[in-house]
Amino acid sequence: MSQKKKRVTLEDLIKRFYYESSDIFSLLKNSDNLLKLDKGVKIKGLIVVSNSEIIETVKKWTFSEYNFNIKEKRGDIFHCNLEKSIKKDNEFIQGDFLLIKCPNQQNIYMILTQESINFFNNGIIRFFNKFHPLISRTYIDTEYIEKILERFESGLNHEKIWISKQVTKSWVRNILAKKKVESDIKWTDLPFREAFLKISENQEWIKSINFNLINNDQISDISIDLRFNSKKSYKIERDTRFQCNYNFSYFYQRIIEGMINQAAESFRFFNNRERTVENNYSINPITIEYDFEIFRDKNQNIRLIEALRNISGSSLSVMHSNPYLHASYVDYRDGSSCDIWVLSNNRISIIPQIRSTPAALERLCENIFTGFREGKYLEKNGDD
Amino acid sequence: MSPDAIQTLKNQCDNYEQTVISIITFAHLLRYDNQTKELKPNTFLHIGRKMNTSSKNSISPEHEITPDILIQQNSSYGIIGEVKKSLPKNNDNWKKLLEQIQKYDDDLKGWKTSDEYIPSMDLVLLIDYLNKSEISDFFEVKIEQGELQLNKKFALIAFSRIDESETKLAFEKVYGDFSDPDVNQTLKKNRPMAMPLERVMKYYKNGGIKFYDSPPPVPYMMKVLWEMVFPSMKKIEDYIDESGKRQMKIDVNVNLLTDQLQAQFTYRDDHDSRQPDVPRTKWIKEAMEQFVRLGYAIRHDSRDDYTVKLKFLKEPFEKFCKEYIEGPSSNPTKQNTLKEWIE
User: Given an 8 Å threshold on Cβ–Cβ distance, is A347 in contact with B161?
Assistant: First the structure.
């Protein structure tokens, strides 16, 4: 009599995900198998940047509320465990995650877990934020999100991307309003190009986007509520957090790899900007350009100042605000500082000083993009 | 103390910065070659330069003087002068200005030539456009009355900001002439020449030049130290270690700070021993003493050593201007730790 084949359980697949992923190929395979079981598992992840070997940095500090352990190292993949006690709520959260050095990249790492969203956001992310600027966050903008969705859809044969939820930000037009940027959470049901067209028309920028894959046959059937019938759902955020419940390897190849390359490009762009003795204190400025004369309206100087003042853990001194703008900015998270000038109607110049870490500069620019308006960096290729 | 006093102080700081910008932009206007799109070769700018007067100098014979600006166009022609963004209301004080110009009306030694003399040299006074009528009238009268007699050519140049799609600084000759035809061609009467600041600054450390040979208002110096120098003196790792503290302690020495500021925030191209050491140690010492007075630092017995208590201030410049006038706040707001602030 043939022996009955043992049924693979969710626990088995989670174990394989954590314990048997030794390189990117086995990781993708184990992730796909885990999601294939269709037990409501979502793989959550994040891309982070580290100046040096990330694990050495993480091992160097201990924080009273966290207990971090490396369970195993296989190649460039670390299987880690994190416990966090939240005194205020008398709560304790713990879970496992994988910390992966991205293939062919020096400074870029990916964190993956299948644990709860609470553990991911309040445990893992808060833990890694503590190492800023040695370990830092990286960001993508609305245009890039649209670009990677194009790439994602271009590889699909019978399915289309439909946006189910979007979180966007936009200006408050009334200059006297207390809030200068408003957030909008929209549960929607639109093909992604249409959704992006509306976002562009409304001069909004994306914070996060949830999307489903819808079969071409279903699209014309109006009796089907596409949002709730798709079992293939994904989420990407501008701070490079992502979630996926189906076909992780395709998601990785079409979206995450692009985000990793973008993170590497950003690191190169923001790195080595500080003024040093070796380069005779020369200056390596960053210019953000807009495709119209945004600062023709001098109220925009005030809006920019307010966006800069809202950056947590930073200070701003305004020397001159109208008609041109000159302010100096300090990021107290690592002692970075820079001058900020607006001397033309469509550009912001950021002048790094003696300490200007890539983490601080990217954080500053991201806050200008989200708190004021998305622009383009001059001289940054931004292509992957 | 009235808020007006604080605003006046802030304006003085702004004027100081604008004076630096005016010096740089005026020099660029004369040094930049519009055809080659580069600085003309063998031209020099010195923001302050120690020059020696001759024995014939009518005001200060055989002395060392330091004009605000010296532009050497080539080995046979240069311009020397002063920049006054703001002027005292009482025009009795303007007589000092006359003396200053007269002092420069000499065959000065200290140019970048083989014998440090230059065959031809003009005098210039840069003033804010708002003051142009008053000052040009004043100079005209003084020259007509013979109170100001100059051997060199002298020109009064007014500068003003123009806000188009790019912010520009425009220069207009309001009185006098230059001996060099090219300079006269560039700077004509009633024909302002505008330079876009963004493009000019690229040639001069992108706004990284913060001092010229005149003491800045104390809060200006405090701001530069607090924002651009002190935070970078702590190791990056310390920011992770000390995120739970309400302030970070940083040991500083006035002489070392002076060296750092001089290297970082002044125009040092073609620097030599005739360049004044700017900013001066005493300006930094004065700012450090203010930090002590306002409770941001303590002085050690050695007098030049201090420990700065780097607190996380949201708007340092505002706070320094206010406290410089009013003294330290008697009811200070709760100081957050870095951790509390970020989270």
Answer: no
**Is pLDDT at B92 greater than 90 in this prediction?**
no
DSSP state of B91: T
Q: Specify the DSSP class assigned to residue A179.
A: -
CB-based contact A332 B196, cutoff 8 Å: no
Closest CA to A145 of A203, A95, A193, A198: A193
What confidence tens digit (pLDDT) does each residue in A115-173 have? 999 999 999 999 999 999 999 999 999 999 999 999 999 999 889 999 999 999 887 76
What is the maximum span of chain A, computed from C-alpha positions, in angstroms?
88
DSSP of A346-357: TEEEEEE-S---
d(CA B223, CA B14): 12
The per-residue DSSP string of A234-302 comes to: EEEETTS-EEESS-HHHHIIIIIHHHHHHHHHHHHHHTT-S--TTTTT----EEEE-SS-GGGSTHHHH
Q: What is the pLDDT of residues A316-326, one digit of tens each?
A: 999 999 899 99
The minimal CB distance from B231 to the residues A319, A344, A355 is found for A355
Spatial strand order of the sheet with A336-344 comes to A314-320, A325-331, A336-344, A347-352, A286-289, A376-377
d(CA A95, nearest CA chain B) in Å? 22
B207 Cα distance to chain centroid: 12
**CA–CA–CA angle A42, A48, A49 (5° rounding):** 165
B127 bridge partner residues: B84, B158
CA distance B264 to B257: 10
As a whole number of angstroms, the distance between CA B40 and CA B203 comes to: 12
Q: Say how many C-beta atoms besides its own lie within 10 A of residue A105's C-beta.
A: 16
Distance CA B315, CA A375 (A): 26
Gap between the Cα atoms of A325 and B170, Å rounded: 18
Which two structure tokens, joined as six digits, stand for B17? 């910065």
Q: How far apart are CA B165 and CA B169, in angstroms?
A: 13
For residue A349, the chain B residues in CB contact (below 8 A) are 198, 206
Is pLDDT above 70 for B173? Answer: yes
Find residue A162's DSSP bridge partners: A191, A212
The alpha carbon of residue B271 and the mean position of all alpha carbons in its chain are separated, in whole angstroms, by 17
Strand partners, A159: A215
The torsion region of residue B116 among left (phi > 0), alpha (psi -120 to 50) and beta comes to left
User: Rounded to 5 degrees, what are φ and ψ at B4?
Assistant: -60, -40
Q: List B253's β-bridge partners, or say none.
A: B305
Give per-residue pLDDT as tens, A101-116. Answer: 999 998 999 999 999 9
What is the model's pLDDT at position A227? 52
| pLDDT tens-place string over residues A176-231 | 676 677 888 999 889 999 999 999 999 899 999 999 998 877 666 655 555 555 67
ipTM of the complex: 0.92
How many separate helices (H) and strands (E) can be counted in chain A?
Answer: 13, 17
Contact (CB, 8 A) for A102 and A260: yes
- List the structure tokens of B70: 């010296």
Cβ pair B20, B28 in contact under 8 A: no
Q: Which two tokens stand for residue B33?
A: 């070659």
Map residue B262 onto helix, strand or coil. helix
Q: Which residues pair with A119 in a beta bridge?
A: none
Question: Phi and psi of A331, rounded to 5°?
Answer: -100, 105
Task: Give whole-number Cα distances, A228 to A160, A162, A212, A213, in Å.
Answer: 15, 11, 9, 11
Output DSSP code: residue A300: H
| B336 contact residues in A (CB cutoff 8 A) | none
Chain A contact set for B196 (CB, 8 A): 343-344
DSSP B131: G
